[in-house]
Specification:
Length: 151
C-alpha cells in the first residue's frame, strides 16, 4: 500500500505596507521599489501580484543574491501568484551599482520565461524592471521594442 500525503497550500500574511499612491504604471512601481529597499547591498528580486482591477494584492521578496546576480525560481513566483488569485504581476530587481542600467542576457532570459509562463497560466506580466537609486529600466519594454519576447 502506498502512503500519500494530504496537504493544503496557503499564503501567510507577514504584515502590511501602506503606500499612498495608486500603482498604475511602471514609473509608479519604480517609486514603490525605491521605498521598499532604499540602500541594497546585494541584488534582490521582488514580486508584486495584481488583481483584475489592477490593485496590488501582495508584495514578496522572492530571491536574494550577491553583488552581481540573483537566481530566480520561476515556479515559486507563479506559486505565489496562483495562491493569491492574481491576474497580472510586476517583478523587479535592483542593481547595486549606480550609473546607466543595462539588462544582462540572464535578465532577458528570465523575462522571456516569466512572460511565456504567464501567458500559459493566464497571468499577464505587466513589467520586469531593473532599478537603482538613479532610475529604472524596463526589460520587458526592451524586449517588446526589439521584437524578442517570442524568441
Amino acid at each position: 500500500m502506498e502512503r500519500i500525503q494530504l496537504i493544503h497550500l496557503e499564503a501567510v500574511r507577514d504584515g502590511e505596507l501602506f503606500y499612498e499612491k495608486e500603482l498604475r504604471c511602471t514609473k509608479d512601481v519604480y517609486e514603490l521599489a525605491k521605498m521598499v529597499d532604499r540602500n541594497p547591498d546585494r541584488e534582490k528580486v521582488y514580486l508584486m501580484g495584481v488583481d483584475s482591477s489592477h490593485a496590488p494584492v501582495f508584495l514578496e521578496l522572492v530571491a536574494q543574491g550577491g553583488i552581481n546576480e540573483c537566481p530566480v525560481d520561476i515556479r515559486n513566483i507563479f506559486k505565489s501568484l496562483l495562491l493569491a488569485n492574481c491576474t497580472s504581476f510586476f517583478v523587479w530587481h535592483n542593481h547595486t551599482s549606480l550609473g546607466p542600467i543595462r539588462s544582462s542576457l540572464a535578465d532577458r532570459k528570465v523575462t522571456k520565461m516569466l512572460y511565456k509562463a504567464g501567458e500559459l497560466l493566464g497571468i499577464r506580466m505587466d513589467d520586469h524592471l531593473i532599478v537603482n537609486n538613479e532610475g529604472y529600466h524596463s526589460v520587458l519594454g526592451e524586449l517588446m521594442k526589439e521584437g524578442g519576447i517570442c524568441q
